[in-house]
Automatic annotation (TrEMBL):
Gene3D superfamilies: Galactose-binding lectin. Keywords: ATP-binding, Glycoprotein, Kinase, Membrane, Nucleotide-binding, Serine/threonine-protein kinase, Signal, Transferase, Transmembrane, Transmembrane helix. One of its GO terms (cellular component) is membrane. GO terms for molecular function: ATP binding; protein serine/threonine kinase activity; transmembrane receptor protein tyrosine kinase activity. This is Malectin-like domain-containing protein. The chain crosses the membrane at residues 426-447. Residues 1-17 form the signal peptide. Residues 83-401 form the Malectin-like domain.
Amino acid sequence: MFFFLFLLFSFSTLSLSHPFSPLDNYLLDCGSTAPLTTAATSSLSADHRLFSGDLARTPNSPFHSPSLRASVSLRNDNPFPGLSPIYHTARVFTSPASYTFSLKDKGPHIVRFHFHAFKSPQLDLGRAQFRVLVDDYVVLTNFTRLNCTGQNPKVLEFLVPVEDEKIVIVFVPNRDSKLAFVNAIEVISAPNDLVPETAQFIGSSGNLVNFDGLNKQALEVVHRVNVGGPKVTPFNDSLWRTWVPDDGLLRSSFGSERLVFGGRIKYHDGGASREVAPDNVYNSARLIRSENDSVTNVNITWAFPILGGYKYLIRLHFCDIASISLNMLYFNVFVNGYLAYEDLDLSYITRSLASPFYADFVVDYGDGNVGGDLSVGIGPSKNSITHAVDGILNGVEVMKINNSHSSFDGEDCSTIVLKSWSKGNYSGLLLTLAAAVCIVLSLSMVIRRKMIESRESLSWSRLPVNSSDGDDHVKEEEGVNK
Ligand SMILES: *[C@@H]1O[C@H](CO)[C@@H](O)[C@H](O)[C@H]1NC(C)=O
Ligand SMILES: *[C@@H]1O[C@H](CO)[C@@H](O)[C@H](O)[C@H]1NC(C)=O
Ligand SMILES: *[C@@H]1O[C@H](CO)[C@@H](O)[C@H](O)[C@H]1NC(C)=O
Ligand SMILES: *[C@@H]1O[C@H](CO)[C@@H](O)[C@H](O)[C@H]1NC(C)=O
Ligand SMILES: *[C@@H]1O[C@H](CO)[C@@H](O)[C@H](O)[C@H]1NC(C)=O
Ligand SMILES: *[C@@H]1O[C@H](CO)[C@@H](O)[C@H](O)[C@H]1NC(C)=O
């Protein structure tokens, strides 16, 4: 039933703007009971995807949500006008809890977390402090650093290589706060070619060597930028990504010339696919143009703030939407001031104009680097010609690569994170919190009973399956504390 409806919806919504239909496509509105039946009862995200409540499930549900013992659902009674319904509820955890998603597909999966730390009369989610694991990767150890109170929800996006038939996501509250939450989770299979096996590693002296096994690393999206164009929303992206404009990241006074192309982007086999980046990214760019009898000798430079201690994947998107004919555009590409591509000749690579191409580079910001800016630049090369376009860039993605502790946020590996809960003196919940939790819990029970009554005809299950039978870690952790 679930799948039938699910497929029905994916086809009706995907066929128009999204030709890619992922085998796994979990869109969970956490803390909500909304079943995935019609647009009227489900939670619609701003990009018109249907999210189903994590409390509304069938007996053979393909995912297990946390046991009710360890979690409550919370509703925002005063959401900001215009805020997507997926942020109106949250699932709140007072001890470690996990979601298990069974997968039909192996390979890379996109995992997105949506956080909006709203305040309700019972709880202030802004007080939450917790860590998050995805399989054995530590994806977040300090929730506070996201700074997601106020109006703006925060979305974290990871690309995780999956070799198992499931993904397990664990929320571990800090011992002090005993409070973790999430508003929505997406688990979506990504096309296999999204992350290639090899990229070019730029060494400390600027030498290029192969970086192998890229597709075995997990990645966190840090910057995703549509150069020279407007914001691209999930509605207009083949994998429901968000691309922001580059204005705040542009570092040189030159480069104010933007171009928006009205023609068709010609995707070719072997080049970038629409899943690598959508038309809306390739049809805008910034450029260097030589209008005079000499080549304009300038660079356009962008700077991307990053944290030190990690390697980063930099994906540069190019599409010659500016030249008037083939074989007129030659330019250099710089990453961190080093020559990453000399005399890039897009005509030679793509054999046609308006045809997309992307290049992947890896840089190391480890060892003693506290952070700073990662720079990307373009400039004319020795083959650049006058009265022509002499440099172009359409998009940039910067992704953090997990460190040797399989973490994106510090040196603690997943085992240490899980132990952090069971160790130490367990003093129990604060009275106020416990009381609040009781109120919310009883409220949500009443609501659920109502939902179940109205759901009976659809043969939804009465009670969610306890997560602990699907997850040994958490069962063990809970056992320790009882
Ligand atoms: C978490 O991040 C915030 C903001 O960046 C910082 O002030 C705080 O010290 C961090 N806490 C820990 C435990 O690292
Ligand atoms: C957090 O966000 C608020 C408003 O969005 C901003 O004023 C503040 O400087 C941010 N704090 C940090 C530590 O980034
Ligand atoms: C999608 O893209 C089109 C054309 O670029 C634009 O007009 C429209 O506003 C975009 N829609 C959303 C929801 O971003
Ligand atoms: C082209 O030449 C004109 C006149 O000499 C000058 O003002 C202009 O800045 C030059 N343009 C570029 C892009 O160098
Ligand atoms: C462009 O940037 C590269 C690398 O930082 C530098 O070597 C070159 O001198 C720059 N060219 C101009 C014209 O600034
Ligand atoms: C990322 O994690 C994987 C799996 O734990 C590990 O094999 C790999 O070496 C890590 N990457 C880096 C750059 O340390």
